[in-house]
Amino acid sequence: MTAALAFVFALQGVAPEAAPVPAPPAAYGDQGTSHVGLVLGLGGGDGGFAWAAGANYGYFVFDGVAPGVDVLASGGTHLRTSGLALGTLRLVPIRTRALSVYVIGRAGRVLIADHEDGWGAGGGAGAIFFTGGRIGFEVAYDILQLMPDSFCADLSQCRMQGLRIGIVAGF
Length: 171
Known about the structure:
Blueprint: H1 2-12, E1 34-45, E2 48-59, E3 65-76, E4 79-95, E5 99-112, E6 118-132, E7 135-147, H2 149-152, E8 159-170
Antiparallel strand pairs: 1-2, 1-8, 2-3, 3-4, 4-5, 5-6, 6-7, 7-8
């Protein structure tokens, strides 16, 4: 009986339904995924040490577009303890399973111990090299302009900039 039904369906051109193909897992920067970064650092020199700790988070509302937040605290010997609380917008125009390249804009509050608070705005660019799964090694360069000029007049400069290396996760 089953063979007869199969023969009748074959004559009518009706193919049996194929099993649904599972969707590939979401990649870094796909809509609905998140970016999480952790900053930990220690350094030494000139008879002292420096430290930094922070985190960043972004949620991709569209493919390659993630508003988010960066929070960082740093200090050390002969350095003022400082903190940053910045809103961000991350754009990821190149996204593959092995590499993502991004640009980021940021702006927000800059807090410095024993000093008036100010503002900062700037951005950066970087690349994330995925080591497997959703964990990656990040290399970036960032610039943050301090404002207003009166805020940073007694500091050595009104710009914070530098190379950043870290580990990020996308999920």
